Fold:
Amino acid sequence: MSGTTVVCGLDRLSLPIVLGLRALGERVTVVAESARPAMRRAASAAGAHLVEGSSDEIAVLDGVDLAASRCLVLTESADLGNLQVALAAREVNPDLRIVMRMFSAELADRASRLLPNSRALSASREAAPYFAADALGLAAVPTRHVWGRHLAVHREGADGHLVDLGDGLFLAPVDPPRLVQRRRSRRLSELRRAVRALFDLRLALTGGALVAWIALAVATFHSALRLSWVDAIYFTVTTAATVGYGDINLAGAPPWLKLYASLFMILSGIGLALLFALAADAVIGARILQALGVPPRGMRGHVVVVGLGNTGHRIVQHLLDAGVEVAAAEVSEQNRHVGEARRQGVAVLVGDGRYRDSLRALSVEGAAAVIAATDDDLANLETALTAHELNPDARIVIRLFDPELADRARTQLGIGACHSMPALAMPAFVAAAMGEGVLSTFEHGARLWLVAEVWVRPGAPADGMDTALLERDGDLHVLAVRDRAAERWRPAHPGRLEGGHEVLLAGTRERWEQVRALAAG
Structure:
C-alpha cells in the first residue's frame, strides 16, 4: 500500500484511529481545527502530520495532498457534513478510499452503495450491543466478526482456542452477545401499565372501605329483614346501585332500618363515584403521565439508561428488542431521540441522571441494571456511584471515552462493566481504512495485528505452499481456508494452499502484505 491516510477531526474517537493507523505503519495526516493540546501532542508523538484547518476546506488546504492520498477517514459527528466532504474529496481524487462515520443507518447504506470503494461506520452501532449485553448479565467481550464467527483475544487459555499468540494471549472463537428478539407489542405493554396503575393506594383504601361498608349492610339486611344471604346480597347491591326497589323493599321495615338504608344509599353512591374516579385517574392519568414523560412509580426488573445520545439511543433499541422494560433520563427535552423513545413506550425523564431524585423517579431501587451512557465521563461515573448506593444489587454499566480511566474504574472502583467507546469502535475504523481484505484488528503486545483475507491465484507462488512455512516466524497464523467445497477452520484447515483458496490470516501488516503478494503472484 502506498499513499497517505488523511483523518479529519481529532477527538476521543479519531485519536485512537490515528494511533492505530500509525501502529500499522501508515503515513497519517490529521486535519483538525481547535483540537485539544493533549490530543495534538499525542498525535504528533505517534508521528502523524497535523494540519490546522476545517475539513470543509480539505480540498484547498496547504499540507494536504488529496490527489496523492490513499484513504480519507471522516470521524466528525455530523452525517451530512461528512458526506459533503467525501463528495468534495472524490472530485479531487476519484480513486480515494472513503471511510465515513455516520449515525443514520439508512444514509450509511445508501452512501456505501453509491460511493464505490467506501465504508460508512457508526461508533455507537459498534459499541451498543456490548452495553446492552452487560446490562442483561450476558458475558460480552469485544469480538471481531469474521467469516461468520466471532473471535476474541483472551489473556488466559481458552477452550478450543485457534491460535496461541504467545505472551499469554490466545485467539479463540466465542459466542457473541445474543439479545433474543422478544419485542413486546405496544398494546400489551400499555395493558400491563394500566393494570399496574390500578394498584394505587388511594384506590385500594377506597375499594376496601366500600367492600367493608357493603359487607356490613349485607349482614344488617340479612338480620333485620330475615333474608337469606343470597337475597341479602342482592338487596344490598340494588340498594347501593340505587336501582331498586322491586320484589324486595322496605315498606314494612322499622324506621331505623329505613334511615340506615337511606344513609347507605348516599354513602354508597359517593363511594362508587369516588372509586370510579380514582380508577379513571389511575388508568388515564398513567397514560397522560407517560405522554408527558413522567416515569411510572414502582417499576421493577427494568433497565435504566442515563443519556439518550446516539449511543444511548442504540442501547435502548437493543434492550427493547430483547423484550426488556426501559426507563431513561435525558437532560435536554430537545434531544431528537426523546420523542422516539416515548413513542416506543420508554418512560423518559427530562432531568440530570446523576442526582438521587432523578434516579429515584426512575425507580432505580427496583432496576435490574443501570447504564450511564452520556457524553461526559465524570457524569457517567457520578451516575454509576449514586446508582450503586441506591441499589447495590443492580448491574452497573458505564460508557467511558478514556481507555485508561475505564481500566482504573474496573480495578479500583470495582465497576466491572466499563466500556471505552473508542476502544470498541477503533478496530472497525482502522480495518476499513486499510482497504479491502482487512477485516479487523487487535492488539498483540505493543503492536497492532490484522485479521485479513487473501485469495490464492492459481499459479501464484503461494499455490502449493505449506501453511507451516508461512507461520514459521510466528508473526502470522492461518485461521481458516475456504474453497468451493467447504470452509475449514484451524486445526482442520489444509496444510497446503492451492489456487482458488481463500485464506483467513492473523498477523502483522508486513507479513500480511508479503503473503498477499505471494498469493497474487
